[in-house]
TrEMBL record:
Species: Kribbella sancticallisti
Source organism superkingdom: Bacteria
Protein name: Phage holin family protein
Pfam families, sorted: Phage_holin_3_6
InterPro entries: Phage_holin_3_6
Phylogenetic lineage: Bacteria, Bacillati, Actinomycetota, Actinomycetes, Propionibacteriales
Transmembrane intervals: 58-83, 89-110
Positions of region (Disordered): 1-20
Keyword annotations from UniProtKB, A to Z: Membrane, Transmembrane, Transmembrane helix
Length: 141
């Protein structure tokens, strides 16, 4: 006998033959509760990671929208000054507009790529639940 009251070499996770049905059901309920909490924690962790990716992609698309707005402003100013002045001030405004256009294009492509990589399915949780179902089937047989 060990100090915990179980015979040496005995598996503490296996029910002893002298346990009552109520005790066995209680152990099963506790185990299923613990398993459910673990599965929910795993699903939360997976979905939190995917939400961060989606947020990053959405932020980049928001940046592309701001840059696109700046393109519209500077294109309008450039057209106005080019018609009014026809010289160096208009070229300066056009250069700024081209820079904003490049920024918008880069942010839009990066944001789109981030959003395409988002996987909303908690794959590890699905696999773990399949394993749990297999385990339950073997316990019922």
């Amino acid at each position: 006998m060990s100090t915990s009251g179980t015979p040496l070499g005995a598996d503490p996770t296996r029910p002893s033959p002298d346990e009552s049905l109520g005790t066995l059901v209680s152990h099963l309920t506790d185990d299923l509760g613990k398993l459910t909490r673990q599965e929910l924690a795993l699903a939360k962790a997976e979905l939190r990671g995917e939400a961060k990716k989606a947020g990053k992609g959405a932020g980049m698309l928001g940046g592309a929208a701001v840059a696109g707005w700046m393109v519209a402003i500077f294109l309008s100013l450039t057209a106005m000054w080019a018609l009014g002045e026809v010289m160096h001030l208009a070229w300066a405004a056009l250069i700024v507009c081209v820079v904003w256009a490049i920024v918008a294009a880069v942010l839009a492509m990066a944001g789109r790529k981030e959003l395409q990589e988002v996987n909303p399915t908690p794959d590890q949780t699905v696999e773990s639940l399949k394993e749990d179902a297999k385990w339950l089937k073997t316990q019922n047989n």
